[in-house]
Design brief:
Helix content is 65%, strand content 0%. It contains six helices and no strands. Helix 5 (72-83) crosses helix 6. It is globular and about 35 Å long.
């Protein structure tokens, strides 16, 4: 008798994390396309956005590829940058 093992892919884990966050907060995390659109609207490369948010060099790339999901705190920060223009000005003055 064969035993079937269900494998969980990294992509399905990130999708499950988005679903859990939506259930807990009532809202969904920004998706890869929304993060990319924000970055492009600001005229930033992935590296420049990562530096402004004080993230590692490859973090934005991982979010875009849906290999990792941003934390709720970073999701709020991304929404602030998207919705309140003064946020990006503040980050540009104070980023490391």
């Amino acid at each position: 008798m064969k035993t079937t093992v269900k494998r969980t892919t990294k992509k399905s884990k990130t999708g499950a994390r988005r679903v859990r966050f939506r259930a807990a907060s009532g809202t969904a995390l920004l998706g890869p396309a929304e993060i990319r659109a924000l970055r492009e609207r600001l005229g930033l490369t992935q590296g420049q956005l990562a530096k402004l948010l004080m993230l590692g060099d490859n973090t934005i790339s991982r979010w875009k590829a849906d290999r990792n999901v941003q934390t709720a705190a970073y999701d709020v920060l991304l929404r602030l940058v998207r919705d309140i223009p003064a946020t990006i000005r503040y980050l540009r003055r104070h980023a490391a």
